[in-house]
Amino acid sequence: MSAPSAPTSRSAALPRDPLLGLPLRHTVRDAVARALRRAVASGALPAPDDAAALDTLVAGIEVEIPGNRDHGDYASNIAMKGSKVLKRAPAQIAAAIAAELTAEASERMHGGGGALGPIAHAEVAGPGFLNLRLRAGLLADHLDAIVRAPLAWGHLAVAAGAPAYRVNVEFVSANPTGPLTIGNARGAFVGDLLSRVLEAAGQQVTREYYFNDFGEQVRRLGESVIALRDGVAVAENGYKGDYVGDLAVAIPPDVAARALAAPKRSGEIDAEGYDGTVADDEIAVIGRWASERIRAGIESSLAVLGVEFDVWRSEGSLYTEGFVDRAIGKLREG
Looking at residue 265, what is its pLDDT? Predict the structure, then answer.
């Protein structure tokens, strides 16, 4: 079995341009947030008594596309939402934010090395709505950023201070008793696509393949391989594909020696085919070797399809590494 590797984010090494890391709506929302904070810092708006209240207000900023395009490309009601916190009339708050947005239109964001501010013009409407018009070159800047780093396009950046979710996606997970099937391959595409979407959304994804190498199915595989090795008929409930015959003639000498030295049956076998020992009987030795060889073939087939896993977890390891015993112990402790 391949040693489990530390999961890594496939999108972590992608070049990061501020224009590629956020949807356009979020870029506008962040511009409004910067303008609000600058208005408070400059004294144009009073600082709330509770500093955390400003953070909460900023986190709640929403921008929407107006139903009437005469009202701009985007609009926000943050001034009305912030009236109580900032103790000012919504129109005053909106005017202060608009002034900061207008000032930023001619500035470079992100320390002077980024694009110009996204808002070309901001105006106050009605009781305190903020109507926003995008800078004419903003979409062109987005396209330039995509051309510079096409593989990073569509990958979202996690908001500052917000931890990325750690997501484990377990898929395919076909038992290693036979080659990969078309049905398994379909699951591989679906699982890998889901993983890619989650990574593009900024999450830390681990792809896991969980396989059963420690049960009755693996014993039946071992019995089937041994039967063909010995030239006898495979049992009715055994495995009869051509691949079983290939396994029967490919048993390595060291595995054959271990199988020959193993007892015919090392103890009472429970319903799952496990007797509590690491060194099992002849059938288990051959069965586990065969299942690992099939698993390696599945891994190669998936690699050809462009699907790779971070972790290959065997059911057997849950027993041999003590996970099952520890879980039972915790249950008994109540």
Answer: 57
